[in-house]
Specification:
The protein is an alpha/beta fold. It has two domains: 2-60, DNA polymerase, domain 1 (Orthogonal Bundle), CATH 1.10.150.530; 65-337, TIM Barrel. It has eleven helices and 14 strands. Strands 3-4-5-6-9-10-11-12-13-14 form a ten-stranded mixed beta sheet, with helices on one face. It has a two-stranded parallel ribbon with strand order 1-2. A two-stranded antiparallel sheet has the order 7-8. Strand 3 and strand 4 (75-81) form a beta hairpin. The structure holds S-adenosyl-L-homocysteine (SAH). The site of S-adenosyl-L-homocysteine (SAH) has 19 residues, from strand 10 and strand 12. S-adenosyl-L-homocysteine binds at residues 111, 113, 115-117, 153, 157, 188-190, 211, 253, 255, 284, 286-287, 289, 329-330.
Length: 338
């Protein structure tokens, strides 16, 4: 049986039309789910009994469960238990501009980035659409507040679960769904080129972030195996096509790894690579994990890198650090709960 919370309004409209019903029924269902938070199909009181019965025979509204919450200042980390027993996590962050949630897209990840905790567990499976939607619904219910923005930057590579991510975006962006503005939704990829191209055709003003992390192939090959499939030139060419097509600014993520990718040479290579492009660089202080191979760049090294980029005319910010003390680094909570 399908989970009702994984259906876009469009899919539900098709479902009702196929049944010989009016498509506005889909809007009614959406209002029950996302406006009234009513998940018991029996209680959809403006819908006829025979349709209720049909809905009940085709869909469940079963929920994943919050297994554990770690609370820090400005940040809460949620560990979820899925219906098949698998575990994933999401993070709630309180910014001065509102509440944002970072959701997971897969159980495990196959991209194998050397510095990333999530990749220590190989991909077990993709998350279903409803499992991504429910991360947000459960967090909203837990804090009894609305989420303002969403980043798909938790466990997993979203473009390796493309169709479910697009469905997820449509549901949370829908005015009758969670009504989160497209500009408040960001998808982050390690650089799966064909999907970047596909994403540029999506008719939604969603933000794209690229985890670049190095501007020289010799360095990127060492820390991100995906670079051997889509190297820096290839992925930057795709980002250029994306910008040309969508006219939107892309975020370049750059995690600062001590003595690995934070030298002056790296900064110069980065400037040469992206100069003139409509991008901004987000320098991410490395969240240290048990992985001893990498350590975080010092504040001084980050500042130097930052200054070099700024004086070269690149837009750059340093990401605020969240939750280091509550194991909020990507994949850490999950990997320590085994
Ligand atoms: N697979 C996607 C999204 C998930 S990772 C991607 O690669 O973009 C989200 C971001 O966190 C990526 O930029 C990733 O490289 C970064 N990241 C992973 N481990 C980290 C750590 N320990 N500290 C800081 N950033 C990390």
């Amino acid at each position: 049986m399908e989970n009702l919370l994984g259906y876009t309004r469009e899919m539900l409209e098709d479902y009702f039309i196929l049944m010989g019903e009016k498509k506005y029924k889909a809007t009614q269902v959406f209002e029950w789910l996302y406006r009234h938070n009513e998940y018991n199909i029996n209680n959809f009181s403006n819908i006829k009994k025979d349709i209720i019965n049909k809905l009940k025979s085709d869909f469940t509204t079963e929920f994943i469960k919050i297994e554990k919450v770690l609370e820090g200042q400005d940040v809460k980390k949620f560990l979820f238990r899925l219906l098949d027993g698998e575990k994933i996590e999401a993070v709630l962050m309180e910014h001065n501009y509102g509440l944002s949630v970072c959701v997971s897209s897969q159980v495990g990840c196959n991209m194998g980035c050397r510095f990333c905790e999530s990749g220590r567990l190989k991909k077990v499976r993709n998350l279903e659409t409803f499992e991504i939607v429910q991360q947000i619904l459960l967090i909203q219910e837990y804090i009894n507040k609305r989420i303002d923005s969403v980043v798909v930057m938790g466990i997993g590579e979203p473009f390796d679960n493309y169709d479910n991510i697009v469905r997820f975006i449509k549901i949370i962006n829908d005015a009758k769904g969670l009504a989160i503005g497209a500009r408040h939704i960001t998808v982050s990829t390690c650089g799966l080129v064909p999907k970047i191209d596909e994403f540029s055709n999506l008719d939604l003003q969603v933000n794209l972030a690229l985890s670049l992390h190095a501007a020289r192939d010799s360095v990127r090959n060492r820390i991100m195996p995906v670079n051997k499939v889509y190297n820096i030139d290839t992925v930057i060419a795709a980002i250029k096509r994306y910008i040309a097509k969508t006219n939107r600014r892309v975020t370049i993520e750059y995690v600062m790894l001590n003595m690995v990718n934070d030298t002056l040479e790296d900064a110069q290579a980065l400037v040469n690579l992206i100069k003139g492009m409509n991008v901004y660089v987000n320098l991410i202080p490395y969240n240290e994990t048990k992985n001893i191979e990498f350590s975080k760049s010092s504040k001084e090294r980050i500042n130097k890198f930052y200054e070099y980029l700024t004086t070269s005319g690149i837009n750059v910010t340093v990401r605020r650090e969240f939750g280091g003390n509550i194991k909020a680094a990507c994949g850490q909570l999950r990997s320590e709960s085994d």
